[in-house]
Amino acid sequence: MYGMLYESVAFFIEKEFGKDIWKQVCQIVDCKHNTFKTHQIYPDKLMPDIAAALAACTGESVDYYMNFFGRCFVRFFSNFGYDRMIRSTGRYYCDFLQSIDNIHLQMRFTYPKMKSPSMQLIEVDDEGAIMLYRSGRTGMSKYLTGQFIEVAKEFYNLHVDVQVLESQNDIAGGTAGPIKLTNASRVVIVKYRLNFDNRDYMTNCVNSSIHQSQLDLAAVDLNILLDFFPFTIVLNRDMKIAYAGEKIVETWILHNPDEDPKSFIGSKLVQHFKCRRPKDVPMEWNDITQMRTVLFEFELVRSNNKDVAAAKEIGKSISSSRKDLETNKPILLKGPLYQLKDINSLIYLCSPLIENLEELHSYGLFLNDLNSHGLSRELVMAGWQHGSTLEMMFEKEEVRSDELEKSLKLSDSWKKQGDELLYSMIPRPIAERMRNGEESTCQTFEEVSVIFIEILDLYVGDSSNIQNAMKAVNTLNSVFSAIDEEIISPFIYKVETVGMVYMAVSGAPDINPLHAEHACDLALRLIPKIQALKLPGISIRIGINSGPVVAGVVGLKVPRYCLFGDTVNTASRMESTSEPYKIQLSNYSAEKVSKANYKLESRGYVKVKGKGEMETFWLLEGPNQ
């Protein structure tokens, strides 16, 4: 499927459900596309997969969202100006229904790889119409239902109720195509009943009486029609060719030089022509007469019979003046099939589908072979003149689209890097609140545990010596990096490093009732980790205290998340009065972790600056050691 269908899906999911739901859906279906390119082909199965993922997120059914996606596409394609095409099909909703196949045919110039379904209006009445849908994809019938409903609502101000009368080979939730148990081709066929107020259309277009002046017209000789339409084919009730225009016969001989020219008239239509659109329609009288408004597209079939020498000579004589013929390219014919009740026949009023002069020559035709009436000749000339310009414009748009996609990917990468840098300076919850415009960045926490770690004996010798200073910086980086590796978010948050002191907290900014236990676990992991570095003369000491703090973001340039309060000061004193490779806890912190079976040893009373005598404890082991 082309990217435009998925663009509509992504746009309206974000609009109706929010970006978070769209991201969640993308994760479920493992969709790696941040954006969809209008003219790029994407897997067919992605559509029902997205519907299933959205259903899982919201609780609605998959069919509901396939219907929703169909309605979204109708609303979305107005951005490309295709709403004007829909409005131009006719005054009535039935005019649109009988023009759907023609719209798809026109769109093939913009979307050459489009695998569009085939749809025919086969019956109309005052209460609505019956549509026949054929497709090689399964699971898209509900998508089409949504389109029927939305087009009627948006462009014709009608309420449509859609019912499925018959369904063959349609498998919900998949688009890979019907399962083939034999070599015969299988196709999805769905017959819809569309209920709506169709009285105006029936009165003005179906049941209107013929003007008397038309009834008085004399009969028209069939030969006149064949002269006016040189590519015309007349079929009898057996779908055999009864009459044919001069140019269609000549073209058939040109492309089948080994066939007997006399065998064309009287042969079955399907012997010489393959129906490309509508797809998989039986070439039977009763089926074709129901399709009064359908444009048929046939491909001329080449024969491999090489036993008729006379036909070969005739073919050579015709093709001798057409040296530009490229025999690999089949000719395509397009036009309606009308029923002529007076002679009990069908007439195919067609013209060859030719885009430019190159195609004209590839078919072995010239401009004067085309219908003299209409715009066939003018369109071929216009296609030749503008084809190269359109191709260049299309290529430029593709390049711009690629550049835009690269820019979006680069923008996402920069955003991720910026977020990582921001979250290293400010806790993620705080940063997100600031992004949402919340001015208050100050918060009170009833109880946290603050950890201080200091590196001892960092400077050996003269600290003013450059070599000693560089060695000290490298050692400091090694120790602090080792500590960073043990910080487990959201249980522990690194606050800052000042000089040779490393500060962390548990219980802020994410509230954690086990803050004391997590702080002690970190301290116990750090002692053997730093010892394992085997840095000569280097040791650490650790102090922990628990209590209330106030936290907030301070500064505009290089803002930092800081902690304030007596709990912080006491934790700093626990570290400064500790000893190498030992962990000193305040009395309150010791009380909390002792209940969790941490092994402690009383140090006694220690003189603490600004506090006087305080009872402290050494942390020896965790509860599982």
UniProtKB/TrEMBL annotation:
It is an enzyme of class 4 (lyase). Pfam families: Guanylate_cyc, HNOB, HNOBA. GO terms for molecular function: GTP binding; guanylate cyclase activity; heme binding. Transmembrane segments: none annotated. The keyword Nucleotide-binding applies. Keywords: cGMP biosynthesis, Cytoplasm, GTP-binding, Lyase, Nucleotide-binding. It is found in: Cytoplasm. The lineage of its organism: Eukaryota, Metazoa, Ecdysozoa, Arthropoda, Hexapoda. Residues 449-575 form the Guanylate cyclase domain. GO terms for biological process: cGMP-mediated signaling; response to oxygen levels. Belongs to the adenylyl cyclase class-4/guanylyl cyclase family. Gene3D superfamilies: 6.10.250.780, H-NOX domain, Haem NO binding associated domain, Nucleotide cyclase. It comes from the Eukaryota. InterPro entries: A/G_cyclase, A/G_cyclase_CS, H-NOX_domain_sf, Heme_NO-bd, HNOB_dom_associated, HNOB_dom_associated_sf, NO_sig/Golgi_transp_ligand-bd, Nucleotide_cyclase. Its EC number is 4.6.1.2. The keyword tRNA-binding does not apply. GO terms for cellular component: guanylate cyclase complex, soluble. This is guanylate cyclase.
